[in-house]
Fold these 2 entries.
Entry 1:
Amino acid sequence: MSPLTLWPATASEQAARIDMLFTGLLVISGAILLLVAGLLLVLCARYRRGSAAPRGDLPDFIRRDVEIGWTAATLFLALFLFWWAGATQLRASDPPAGALEVHVVAKQWMWKTRYPNGAREINALHAPRGEAMRLMMTSQDVIHSFFVPAFRLKQDVLPGRFTEMWFRATKPGEYRLFCAEFCGTDHARMGGTVTVMEPEDFARWVAAQPQEEDLPGEGAALFTALGCSGCHAAASAVHAPVLAGVYGRMVHLADGRTVRADEAYLRDSILQPKRDVVVGYEPIMPSFDGLVDEADLQRLVAYLQSLRGEAAR
Ligand code: CUA
């Protein structure tokens, strides 16, 4: 960006519309500022102490017509700006059907992206030029905010729910990604790169990414990445069940039932840990509903199943 350029790079369809809105607001409010400040200065000079300017009541036409005039003008201007901003925002928030869907998971302090074919990245997003891309975003811990200045896009990313955002990139290149919500020690370093590629290049790139075949291995990585290993470890200060060998075992629940720890049980324990509390443990585990998708659940369960051998050792 040259120092003479007013705006950051523009690389998405809505960037131009948002810049126009911003410029419009700047020009209109600048004009109002000049008018009001100018009148103020003129009146200060004209009616300064000791000046000979005539004083007395304002003429009737000022008290009535002009007053009505500027009240109405301000009202219509405000309504016009409301409509303009609202229309721009609505257009920017409604993803077209068939948009390429990418999952984004934020955590202290990184961005994790996942493409429909299973390819994954950290602190990076690749997008095809000219095609709509929809981001389904959630956070594993605190509130973050996904901010790409070149796209003029910023969206809060919240734990426990999905927020979405879409864009159509217009110019190949590399653009900065920031976290725009203070989220802890390394907030300032929580960023990455958005790479916009020609559609053919993107298709080639995404197909060349490693596909996930090793479910237990992926699950083990998730187990660490999601923080499960922080509590479910023999050495952990938190009193949580050690999961090696849990698969297939009978589990005693606080409500008196005894169930087998099969796939469904493990899945429910991740999504609704407070429902089936295990005897002897506090119900302190948070739900991972919304933080892991079905594919992640499959991986986690596959990992837990793979721990059978370890327990037997
Ligand atoms: Cu994440 Cu700031």
Entry 2:
Amino acid sequence: MLFQPDIERMPLAQLRELQNTRLKHQVAYVYERVPFYKHKFDALGVHPSTFRGLAELTKLGFTKKADFRDNYPFGLFAVPQPEVARLHCSSGTTGKATVVGYTAQDLDIFAEVVARSLAVAGCRPGMKMQNAYGYGLFTGGLGIHYGAEKLGLTVIPVSGGGTDRQLQLLQDFQPEIICATPSYAQVLAEELHRRGIPLDAINLQHAVLGAEPWTDTIRQQVETGLGVRATNIYGLSEIMGPGVAQEDVNERGTGSYIWEDHFYPEIVDKDTGEPVAEGELGVLVFTTLTKQAMPILRYWTNDITNLYYSESRSRTHVKMGPIRGRADDMLIIRGVNFFHTQVEDILQGLDNVSPYYQVVASRRGSMDEVEVSVEISEELMRRLELDTLTETSVQQHECLRTLQGAFAKKIKDNIGLSMNVRLLGFGQLPRSEGGKLSRVQDLRHLA
Ligand code: ADP
Ligand code: K
């Protein structure tokens, strides 16, 4: 099902024309209304009367997180406050939260791209959706909510957390869809199993997961644990919120469509800011094409991914690969760059481990060290008759030492770094409490 077939299947040439017209308009609009952009464009020698559109996009420089901070709270707004229908904040995962605003038209478009995304995820009018994204200043809850209503779903606005109630509602209301962060969907899958609730006591078919990086390791756990097909939804407050990009339920694993008619994406080199070749990894940069309250030109998201026009696609829009992590989450260990999602990826190929892990970087003397903690599976705990797992139990069981060695070797082979592997018992690592979960700790500045 296509929510907006004419847009979703628009021939690329026509899409480019539409983007070009919208971009020129957006540039003229911010030049007139937002002093930040006027000063910036004056300094860069860009003027709306001569700006040629997409061909000159890179002339516009970048907008960065610091620009939001410097203009806190409303300095980047392009409309007078009475025309702002709603305010949201980014969740502030990295530093001070940024404020974003929407006109009534922005909110309509927000709902439209979310509705489009949910349809791509396999949701159909008439289905029930349990929305376990946090409601409030975070764009996730309300963003999904209005898009779901627009598509014609019955929304259950439970918000994040409260696992007992979540599981109860899944059984009582029989929703076909759950929306959550991937780390919270893991918790729901795990708890369902732990409490012995059989899969046929619930009716889920689809899980729409986003707001943090995740890999196929989690997809597999959630899909089996909840009996769903799990797809990726991506977005960020500065640009809109969830619904900037969405993975197709029938094209899982091949990337997520970016809704290019509203959000123009680029990938640039994280050090030079220069555009990279199609398919190469780099920093994702977005330009809004239709925003009224807070248009943002060339926003440096800090998210690392790649863009490509995939062979297998039912829509014309570009796809982005999974977010590998944020540029500022990337650990540089003894000169080697790596993201925690690479560790997550490796877990999938290993037996007897759970999909829970944590990465801690520290410094001993002048040496960087990384410790990866991973939980062994519940099943293996049972087989070895262990309640908890300690260093001694690892020494006592040869199979645990083998597992530890195999994991360390896979890390070394795949990432190119030696890391200390610590095995933990099932349930010993922190779980999501309903929102985003941090899986990396960098303690090197403490040394
Ligand atoms: P914050 O940056 O404070 O977390 P937001 O709530 O706006 O604020 O979150 C947007 C960010 O969340 C993105 O820039 C990205 O880093 C992350 N994110 C959102 N969706 C996904 C996704 N599907 N996969 C990976 N990361 C995601
Ligand atoms: K953000």
